[in-house]
Amino acid sequence: MSLSDADHELVVAELGREPTRAEAALFENLWSEHCAYRSSRPLLSAFDSESPDVRIGPGDDAAVVAVSDDIYVTLGIESHNHPSYVDPYDGAATGVGGIVRDTLSMGAYPIALADSLYFGEFSDEHSRYLFEGVVEGIADYGNAIGVPTVTGSVDFHPDYEGNPLVNVACVGLLPADRLVTAEAQQAGNKLVLVGNGTGRDGLGGASFASEDLAEDAETEDRPAVQVGDPYTEKLLIEANEDLVDAGLVQSARDLGAAGLGGASSELVAKGGFGARIDLDAVHQREPKMNAMEILLAESQERMCYEVRPEDVEAVERIAETYDLGCSVIGEVAEGNYVCTFDGEVAVDVPAEYLADGAPMNDLDSVDPEQPERDLPRVVDLSTTFEAVVGCPTTASKRWVYRQYDHEVGLRTAVKPGDDAAVMAIREAEKGLAFSSGANPKWTSAAPYDGARAVALENATNLAAKGATPLAAVDCLNGGNPEKPEVYGGFEAIVDGLADMCRELSTPVVGGNVSLYNDSVTGPIPPTPTLAVVGTKDGYDAPPAAFSGEGTILLVGTGGGALGGSEFLAHAGGSDQFPELPKNPGEVVTQLASVADDETTLAVHDVSHGGLAVSLAEMVTESAGVDVAVDDAIKLFDETPGRAVVETTDPEAVRETFDGAAPVFELGAATTDGTLSLSVGDEELVYDAEEIRELRDVLARELD
User: Tell me: the pLDDT tens digits for 322-357?
Assistant: First the structure.
């Protein structure tokens, strides 16, 4: 990829001359889709990002939200899609490293990670290779740096065959008085680079992420993939703590996309300044690097700090304590962003124009259409039930999360495998619920309503643990936006996500956009990953497993359709997307209230796979259920905003939902560890061992 003719003309007009090689490369990367959001920024105004709890919203390395007057959390998300196709281990690992450093740059300590992963069909050998490599990369990096991966999602869909998605979110924690931003504060302050030496890995990663994957990407694009070093990252985490504790950091930026050039120019531009940078001063780990390589290499585990001149020695001492490289590379200045190398000026451009001057794209779009209803007849209910419960997307993800150290840090009160994780924020006497994911079958069938459903499902996950949404970040993944049908689907997921988050009173405080996820196999489904945090008093939450002692209720309204469902993926046919609740915010609030009631024994949301999967997941060796539903549509309907509740006081649940949503009595819990399910005139009976065997497909195939 190179600077387009149109962009080249704009740069020449601004500078009044031809750009140098380094300048052209900087503009190419910082004006790429990955950095400048040229096709998506015009759409992002659809999101509401303000609330009384939001301290820093979109535009910084991570968002900052208050959980109490004195305690804040950060929330960020990023994609590492193209790198994870080329090199699944390093691509995924460095995605973790990058989002953790975004957390550090706000003055926060990272406390939890979420991974939302999307691959081609599980039966495909190459998809499994990518899947195993990505999980290993996330596990090795996250475990080594001591940040638990506590929640997330894994989906398999044929349209990710040539372009998997790796979306990683991170939550950080900080007292209010430790807040740092990525906005330069004062001319004359020094710019200090701390961390790993700069090498040639990840060179041009931003522009690589802004073009379709070619057939030979796994070999030809490997130099664009960064190589991670989690042990240096752990040292950087602890050094950052010391730097912030000592009040030595005026502003900070992680070196991610476009490397040093991206981080330093964006930091000073955000403050309305320029910079004077000596590229020869940058500590390097490879010989004879040129100016362009030093500026644009995306070598990992590096941070750029703005430091008062009188504090530089203290910063150098802390870096030395942790055996980290440290270079004073220049200073914040009035005027242009200027970089010198080998005694000559390599870059001399307006910082704001470089960081924020890319023109936006005006693209054609075609509105997506929903399919008509053409439902297949359920010939064999037991075969269909087993296919839906045992398909890789709805099956147990224990094989994935058992590889993660999800308890390090001693804050994980509700562990992976539940609707949402819950982290103990003891400093504020709060529980922080955390959920992340999307459903590509939903957004393939109906991009707008499917995206609304994604937001509602994540909010319902929090409510099932007794929490109400506080804030969200999104990772908007799409194909080549220059294709009108692709851009139309992307527009629809943006609007759908924004509209439902508004209905849920959940500000979208930041995020990431990843386009050009096309390959020789075609575009990916429009995929709006949403990561949501919510709060509750205390850290206790009802389990998502039956106790064997209560009445079983289904709360919430079914949508009466099967569009985008696992049932249709197995049985064939088509259908409209189910109608979502008219009052989603009220439903979520009331469900959280029910979940926190002492008479509630278990809560589990209904979504992927419908009621069939929810009931199967709740059965244990010692607790089962005897329930009945009218027909297969009600068994496999995936409408979110609903939950299965086991309670000793059904009337109290009905009173809580009075006027908000209907409550249906399905049956009773049992102590025999068996799912006994009547569907019309048919009976299905599975014991806990049979269900476990159905749901252990990942472990069975991969171990």
Answer: 999 999 999 999 999 999 999 999 999 999 999 999
Give residue for tokens 């998809």.
127
Amino acid at residue number 330: G
Rounded to an integer, what distance in angstroms lies between the CA atom of residue 507 and that of residue 376?
40
Cβ-count burial of 502 within 10 angstroms (0-12 exposed, 13-18 middle, 19+ buried)? middle
Q: Which residue has the tokens 């269909």?
A: 384
Residue 213 has pLDDT above 70, yes or no: no
d(CA 296, CA 289): 11
- Residue 212: φ, ψ to 5°: -60, 150
C-alpha to C-alpha distance for 282 and 267, rounded to whole angstroms: 17
Q: Which of 34, 157, 406, 608 is catalytic?
A: 34
- Contact criterion met (CB below 8 Å) for 332 and 253: no
User: What is the distance between the alpha carbons of residues 637 and 655, in angstroms, rounded to a whole number?
Assistant: 25
Would strands 468-477 and 508-514 be described as parallel, antiparallel, or unpaired?
A: parallel
Is 665 strand, coil or helix? strand
What's the maximum distance between 2 C-alpha atoms anywhere in the chain?
A: 85
**Active-site residue flag, 283:** no
Query: Span 589-617, mean pLDDT?
Result: 97
pTM of the entire predicted model: 0.94
Structure tokens at 219: 């070999």
Question: Rounded to whole angstroms, how far apart are CA atoms 616 and 394?
Answer: 11
Task: Kindly give the residue spans of alpha helices, DSSP state H, lying in 224-290.
Answer: 230-245, 259-270
Complete DSSP assignment for 38-60? TTTGGGGGGS----TTEEE-TTS
pLDDT tens track for 464-490: 999 999 999 999 999 999 999 999 999
Hey, what are 203's tokens? Answer: 């060179």
Residue closest to 376 by CA, chosen among 630, 634, 571: 571
637 with 565: CB under 8 angstroms? yes
Mean pLDDT of the chain: 94
192-210 per-position pLDDT tens digit: 999 999 998 767 555 555 5
pLDDT at 575 over 60: yes
Catalytic residue among 8, 80, 157, 608: 80
Q: Which residues lie below 8 Å from residue 190, measured CB to CB, with a gap of 6+?
A: 306, 307, 308, 309, 312, 328, 330, 331, 332
Clarify whether 80 is annotated catalytic.
yes
DSSP codes joined into one string, 116-138? EEEES-TTSHHHHHHHHHHHHHH
Token pair 């469900």 in the structure block, residue: 591
First to last CA, the chain: 41
Q: In sequence order, what are the beta bridge partners of 277?
A: 330, 339
Instruction: Report angle CA 172, 439, 592 to the nearest 5 degrees.
Output: 60
Q: Are strands 682-687 and 663-670 parallel, antiparallel or unpaired?
A: unpaired
Interatomic CA distance for residues 290 and 294, integer angstroms: 6
Q: Could you report the per-residue pLDDT of 236-259, keeping only the tens digit for each?
A: 999 999 999 999 999 999 998 889
The alpha carbon dihedral of 89, 94, 100, 103 has a sign of negative
Distances (CA, A) of 144 to 236, 406, 408, 450: 13, 12, 10, 36
The closest alpha carbon to 119, from 94, 145, 95, 84, belongs to 84
- Residues constituting the chain: 703
Q: Beta-carbon neighbour count of residue 644 at 10 Å?
A: 25
Query: What is the rounded distance in angstroms from the CA atom of residue 451 to the CA atom of residue 498?
Result: 9
Question: CA-CA distance, 198 to 290, in Å (whole number)?
Answer: 11
User: How many CA atoms lie less than 13 Å away from 694 in the CB half-sphere?
Assistant: 22
Q: Kindly state the average pLDDT of the residues 82-94.
A: 91
How far is the C-alpha of 128 from the C-alpha of 339, rounded, in Å? Answer: 45
Q: Detail the DSSP E strand segments found in 573-613.
A: 600-606
